[in-house]
Amino acid sequence: MLIGEVARRSGVSARMLRHYEALGLVRPTGRTGSGYREYSGEDIRRIFHVESLRSLGLSLREVGRALDDPGFEPSALVDDLARRTRERIAAEEELLVRLRRIGAAEPGDWEDVLQVVALLQGLGSESAGKRQRAALSSVGEVPVEALVEAALRETDTNVAGALRWALAQAGEGASALLAEGLDAPVAEVRARAVRSIAEMPGAEATALLRQALAHSDVVVRRYAALALGARGVADAVPTLVDMIVEEANDVDAADALSALASDPALADRIATGLVGHLAHDSLGPSGRRRLAQALADIPGITSSRALAELSRDEDRAVALTATYVLALRDTR
């Protein structure tokens, strides 16, 4: 079969067939009387083998090795091809995400496109300073999805604060996207998600924080309780009380309870929650001292009675703390 017919039947151009011949991949075994290349059935099978291997992503050099080396083992090469394919797919997916984000920013001209690209690159920079500058410049310039992704992966404290600020300015939609981070398998990501939601204004963020009070991750519950306490949400009281008992951000928890206790309807509930732990035998002197300190700013008879009892505590430090707190309350 002559080269033109082979090209028509195989779908491989005559030019490529000549290239294969130059590389030694497929050499026609015969010549016509006029000197034209003539391919045998075996030659044509070889062409199809070459094309099949090329379809897997092998280079022509790798195809030659696979077909001509009797000791060639395909498993390692196939594994390498799979790895390269995964990397290529990841790169293409990253590009697709970037293109979608640029499109979502609705650029008006190429200058706008370049601005969005620069900010997206800044958010992904290895330099914390560049990431922070990009975060502070990104409000209204990049899609909120990009800010959320950056906030959930950020490890630098200053950059994380800038990203949370940017998200708080971003308006509706950011809270729901951040909420997906609450179910992340990595604890640090869950913590970043709830801290970001805590700085989001509005009822949507408050509702998500309420739900987070029942989260399986204790860190998420505690961040949510502190944020809700600052928003005046009574649902946070039990978790805040537990934080004082467990010495987990107890000072912040006490401040949140003090703010909530400004509502007379909540003051007695908070005092009852704190005093209820005093009856537990497992509560040591340090725990009783923390409770005495927390009761200082909780008005009402329940707090006063508990402090009077603590002023006679067998532990001197607890007794002195309670006595001091009672004296302060008497001067107010």
UniProtKB/TrEMBL annotation:
Residues 1-69 form the HTH merR-type domain. This is Transcriptional regulator. It comes from the Bacteria. Gene3D superfamilies: 1.10.1660.10, Leucine-rich Repeat Variant. SUPFAM superfamilies: ARM repeat, Putative DNA-binding domain. It holds the Pfam family MerR_1. It comes from Streptomyces ruber. The keyword DNA-binding applies. One of its GO terms (molecular function) is DNA-binding transcription factor activity. Keywords: DNA-binding. PANTHER family: HTH MERR-TYPE DOMAIN-CONTAINING PROTEIN (PTHR30204:SF93), REDOX-CYCLING DRUG-SENSING TRANSCRIPTIONAL ACTIVATOR SOXR (PTHR30204).
